[in-house]
């Protein structure tokens, strides 16, 4: 299949079938933990779908009901992938939100998280302005989740019929995990209260804990039922978007030596190890998350010893032969690259920024 995809011509016919094929190729690369390739195929599908007018509701009058339904669903998949991969890779979305029907509000919020908090324009804003923006985005996300959208009842009915009531409940909880992870990214930009001992705000840490706890409930439930939807949950929660809760709690452990958070991270690692044989793609995350967890465990152990060592966390990473700079204060910055801070004028960190953790994952050999 990959040989076939690699041999696709530069110029392809602009037809529904080719758009569908490109969208399926994007899904394939998402499932094999290669989001950059998924982004390339999805961008081409997005351009073709726009050229064919998939984003125009007026086309529905010219089509049969089945044809219109297929077109709308395909375009929705492309749009969702566009917003998810945009934030996953830290780049601007291909789709203009003003061209979208109101049923796509949830994904619009995801796009705004990048545009208003993580883009180059956002980096030029003051911390106070970014704080206010984050508060507004979090409130909009909460309101949207409470209100839902017009097509959600029909969608939920189809999923419930396909999965059964119990699995459907777990899938809804899995969707909450994704939303909590998104909120964690939003809360990361909140200003810290005076005297705070942590790099991240209390709201960010609290949401990160909730996300990991609910993630474990969903994983355990789907494993118990031997559900085919387990892979869907992991693709949606971990592979399609930055799973910020894990990194936030890891930073909190390094800074505060919180044993409860360390134990929760260990449970997450164990659950990933338990399914790695049936889901080889998840090993990509395990390759980074497990060594970080092990180094953090050793770091907390020696720091809480009667005679603690004085080295910082990066010294322990060097001992573990991990070529990764991982200072919690660094990961709280807005810089996705290594440029100076535009607002304060201070030199930028020459290490790993928050979203660079996932770039590190993506740059490793395929699973």
TrEMBL record:
InterPro entries: AtrR-like, XnlR_reg_dom. The lineage of its organism: Eukaryota, Fungi, Dikarya, Ascomycota, Pezizomycotina. This is Xylanolytic transcriptional activator regulatory domain-containing protein. The keyword Nucleus applies. It holds the Pfam family Fungal_trans. Keywords: Nucleus. GO terms for biological process: DNA-templated transcription. Coiled coil: none annotated. It comes from Pseudallescheria apiosperma. The keyword Nucleus applies. One of its GO terms (molecular function) is DNA binding. Transmembrane segments: none annotated. Residues 38-111 form the Xylanolytic transcriptional activator regulatory domain.
């Amino acid at each position: 299949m990959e040989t076939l995809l690699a041999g696709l011509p530069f110029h392809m016919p602009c037809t529904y079938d080719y758009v569908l094929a490109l969208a399926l190729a994007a899904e394939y690369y998402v499932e094999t933990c290669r989001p950059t390739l998924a982004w390339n195929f999805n961008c081409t599908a997005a351009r073709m779908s726009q050229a064919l007018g998939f984003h125009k509701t007026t086309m529905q009058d010219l089509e049969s009901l089945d044809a219109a339904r297929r077109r709308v669903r395909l375009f929705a998949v492309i749009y969702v992938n566009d917003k998810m991969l945009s934030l996953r890779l830290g780049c601007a979305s291909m789709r203009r939100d003003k061209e979208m029907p109101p049923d796509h509000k949830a994904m619009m919020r995801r796009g705004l998280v990048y545009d208003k908090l993580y883009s180059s324009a956002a980096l030029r804003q003051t911390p106070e302005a970014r704080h206010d923006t984050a508060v507004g985005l979090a409130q909009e996300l909460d309101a949207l989740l409470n209100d839902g959208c017009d097509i959600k009842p029909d969608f939920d009915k189809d999923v419930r019929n396909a999965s059964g009531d119990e699995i459907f409940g777990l899938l809804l909880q899995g969707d909450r995990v994704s939303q909590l992870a998104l909120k964690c990214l939003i809360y990361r930009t909140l200003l810290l209260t005076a005297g705070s001992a942590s790099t991240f705000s209390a709201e960010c840490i609290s949401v990160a804990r909730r996300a990991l706890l609910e993630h474990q409930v969903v994983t355990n439930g789907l494993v118990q039922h031997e559900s085919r939807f387990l892979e869907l949950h992991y693709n949606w929660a971990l592979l399609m978007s930055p799973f910020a809760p894990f990194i936030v709690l890891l930073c909190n452990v390094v800074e505060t030596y919180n044993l409860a958070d360390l134990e929760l991270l260990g449970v997450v690692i164990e659950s990933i190890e338990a399914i790695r044989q049936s889901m080889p793609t998840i090993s990509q995350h395990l390759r980074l998350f497990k060594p970080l967890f092990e180094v953090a465990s050793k770091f907390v152990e020696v720091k809480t010893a009667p005679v603690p060592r004085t080295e910082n966390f990066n010294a322990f990473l060097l001992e573990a032969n991990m070529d990764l700079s991982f200072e919690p204060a660094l990961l709280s910055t807005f810089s996705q690259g290594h440029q100076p801070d535009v607002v304060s004028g201070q030199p930028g960190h020459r290490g790993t920024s928050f979203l660079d953790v996932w770039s590190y994952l993506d740059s490793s050999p395929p699973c």
